[in-house]
Amino acid sequence: MIRHLKKLLSLLLVFMLLPTFALGITQKEEATALIDVLDKSEIKPNPKGLHHYLLVCMDSWGANINNLGYSDGMVLLTLDEGTGRVMITSFIRDMLVLHPDGEPGRLTYIAKEYGVPALVETINLHFGINIEKYILMDWSQVQSIVDACGGVKLNVTNAEASYLRRYSISPTSTVPSMANAGEYLFKGHAAVIYMRMRKVVASNGEKQDFGRTFRTRTVLSNIADSLTDISYDDAERLLNSVLDNILYTNLSAAEILEAFNIAFSLKGTKVEQCRLPYDNTVRPYDYYGGAAQLVDFNKNRELYNSFLMESSYVVME
């Protein structure tokens, strides 16, 4: 009886795998068929007053614009003049996307292999966003920007505190010195280490890159909250500090001034957070022996469009 059962299960397995073997489908072909991408003509113009700025941080403390590495952090800052909204959206770096050459690969590789404009276009085509402007920096520059903001207050769990104590942060990099769970003022270096944590579950229960993106959004949101009462002169000085600590941007001087004035007019606005992909629209996927994430892009486009368009807009022609 047991032998017959084993034979039946073996035959069932063969029939399940037969279509793949018969067709000679590779994992690359399978992944390509599962990734739904828009055509450029399907990307809609931004509504009037809606501005997207992609913040890209390289996985390096000293990145070289002429020899970029992997993009470690990718966050979209959206300012909406029409509805008075400020939104930050983070992207997990190990999601599988179609690269500019049509081959599947992780999102984090694109800046290194094809350049930052290609990364922007890839995000647009997969998520149906119309991003044009970006700012590129590395972790040392993020550190300097956090310090220019006066640091950032963060609540940490016992597990996070334990990790940070074991890491090479100095006793003076948080106020008070890192001990147990609680609120601390993080200086720039400690804030970067906090954002990069992957091996410790985040306070919202998310793990790995999902937890990392949550921490990044938390840092940005808390910094924005701390600048609610900043004066225009102090904001200008902070802007200069930011501009001194970027690798590159395709924003012109006039566009930087425009973005600054919009951001200042919206100071004090509660920052809305989003993560792409959304929960329940992504699953782990082993891609040629490497951990990746397979995303339902069509569902994410629907959800993200609903998030952006919560209010009525006048669409630009």
Structural commentary:
- The chain is an alpha+beta fold.
- The chain contains eleven helices and 13 strands.
- The chain has helices spanning about 1-25, 25-35, 110-115, 115-125, 140-150, 160-165, 190-195, 210-225, 230-245, 255-265, 295-310; strands at about 50-60, 70-80, 85-90, 95-100, 105, 135, 150-155, 175, 180-185, 250, 270-275, 280-285, 290-295.
- The strands form four sheets. Strands 10-6-1-2-3-11 form a six-stranded mixed β-sheet, sandwiched between helices. Strands 7-9-8 form a three-stranded antiparallel β-sheet.
- Helix 7 (about 190-195) packs antiparallel against helix 8 (about 210-225).
- The longest helix is centred in the N-terminal third of the chain and has 22 residues, at about 1-25.
- The chain is globular.
